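The following record pairs a protein chain with its ligand, nicotinamide-adenine-dinucleotide.
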Amino acid sequence: MFPPAPLDPEALERAARLLADAHSVVAFTGAGMSVESGIPDFRSDDGLWRRFPPEHYATIEVFHQNPDRVWTLLRAMGELVKHAVPNDGHRALAAMEAEGMLKAVITQNIDGLHTKAGSQQVLELHGTWRGLHCSLCFHVDPGGEALPDHTPICPRCGGPMKPPIVLFNEDLPQVVVTRAWSLAAEADLMLVIGTSLAVWPASDLPDVAAGNGAALVEVNDRPGALRYRQAVELGGAVAHVLPRLLERARSFRQP
Ligand code: NAD
């Protein structure tokens, strides 16, 4: 594995100028956004995929055949999510929105940390860890804080329940997808943050933005997921890079 990339001051200047001058900015975030909040991403050496290969633990087909097995992953993930708090990167995005620099955050994360940090416009493409849904009759149970020891059973139809997070091969929430795709198409700048762009269809969003003329800025401790030569790469950890990007963009916006 390559060492994390350092933050290049020239790239920071270019990205901050783009952010200060753009009119319609969206952030698109992935698991790297929450690593400094204590939730490992999926592909790193200590990531959850090592313990729980997705094809055996994280598809909707496995959930229908063997919900208990999927719940071993959900419990491990739930423990991490329960204790996580937003980091300075989440807070910087919330501040960008509050100051009129950012329209919305589109996230692949299910941890709810953007909302906890104060972001108002958050589109959770893969759902969020809030309550329980029946996979058969779609009954919703607001649920409590405690993680169940066994697969929770729907009080209405007896089907297995899970949090409303999207497993592999499961449909994304259509209303969220429609809004996210139109925000990406209207954007003149997309900040692509902490994602390896390995999960489809979310991975298409930077293409939608760039295809409609948006500039792209990638924030990643190991940048290089974007294939656009003109994309600005900001190497470094989100909690370090995003507050600096915000600070520099503010200085460009001052009269
Ligand atoms: P990924 O694990 O494939 O990639 C994470 C990316 O973030 C990598 O490119 C890595 O280099 C980078 N990264 C790691 N730590 C970073 C840091 N501190 N600062 C900047 N960059 C950092 O994640 P993905 O692309 O989001 O795809 C994984 C899928 O798994 C997503 O669909 C997501 O729903 C789910 N997931 C969610 C969470 C969460 O909710 N927090 C956690 C793990 C996985």
